[in-house]
Amino acid sequence: MKFHRIPDETVRRLPIYLRGLLLLAEQGREHVSSHELADILHIKGPQIRKDLSYFGEFGTPGVGYGTKELSDCLRDILNLNCPHKVALVGYGNLGAAILRYSGFRSYGLKITAIFENNPRKIGRIVQNIRIQDVKEISSLKRKKIELAILAIPAESAREVTERLEQAGILGILNFAPSYCIDARSKVKIITIDIGMDLARLPYYLPIKAEIAG
Amino acid sequence: MKFHRIPDETVRRLPIYLRGLLLLAEQGREHVSSHELADILHIKGPQIRKDLSYFGEFGTPGVGYGTKELSDCLRDILNLNCPHKVALVGYGNLGAAILRYSGFRSYGLKITAIFENNPRKIGRIVQNIRIQDVKEISSLKRKKIELAILAIPAESAREVTERLEQAGILGILNFAPSYCIDARSKVKIITIDIGMDLARLPYYLPIKAEIAG
DNA sequence: AGTTGTGAACTTATTCACAGCC
DNA sequence: GGCTGTGAATAAGTTCACAACT
Predict the structure, then answer these.
(1) Of the residues B58, B76, B94, which one is the last residue of a structural domain?
(2) What is the dihedral of CA A127, A89, B155, B175, to 10 degrees?
(3) What confidence tier does A175 reach under pLDDT thresholds 50, 70, 90?
């Protein structure tokens, strides 16, 4: 295993591998080949092997990968072995949906703080968490929370991001449009832009209007 | 303008350009250069020019692009000029959040049908739409609805996708894990996997556990 | 026989540099 | 002077093919 810069796309796939392996391990499977994992996840076998090869040698020729062993290694690589507290900023429809979404938990990610602008929501307690004023974001520093989910309207995204950086947040999952965020930021920001994803779907519809050349 | 296969990444960026231009047009701007648009959207200028060049020549040297003209062209290219009806499948927390999300509307996309499994929700009326049983998905064919948003648990995703295909749906925005979906499908499927995106964020935290080689 | 790990070939995407136009 | 459109150069990512291992 020589040193290589690790492609972003590889990192993007690692959690997918992890989920597949956890699923298999749950079903009692002890080993899996790259080819079988490929079938399950709709990712090609050589791709999986190459991705893993950037981090080490985890398999046994002729046998495959130990489901338990490899998922442990992936958790190490992804830094998911220690549990992470996550702050949720914005408790509108989307924020509330995210709070109730259980998909994070198996990766050791837990929302433990919520912030809102709306005075009518501040002070309410949801899932045992007291909704705080966004002005109290600076308290995250004390609480050693490093990750945040941004589920707020475009207008306030820039200001809140700056507050989060001030408060020592190091990673943000952002649901606001990406142009709202300061590009010079040191913080790792992953943006999910639901509107943009839906807006490009009609492009692929078979009957398409021709565009004048 | 020679013929080129259009990169997927280019198509992914088109809606971003469109949004930027609509924003500028709203502010009364008549023209914009690729460089200025680049600054706003955090996408490089030459990238924007090349992306657009796959579809035609939309700008004026020395002047830039007409905000109104180019946004019209992009709407044509993306097939967003005629309004599209969208079916929402799954009215849980996420489904409800998506229904209330207004970001689609400016692109002519409107949710006009909702389907659910849960008998307690079927029959309820939300935003003037009557929630129907998923068994009635076949009715979409009559209604000429071609797009769907899938906001349901992993377990039922495969079955529902098959139903949607039967009903003539041609594009799906999918919030279930991608392995749940039949890879051989003819339908264009764009998957948003919130859990996986959050799970890769800790990888980028500066203090990382070393992995044994 | 079956499978991994990986260099090399290939494909896809981005960036540069500049001719040509306003 | 300022800007677009684009071929050529570069970079990034994927796939292949196969030696090495169990």
Answers:
(1) B76
(2) 160
(3) very high
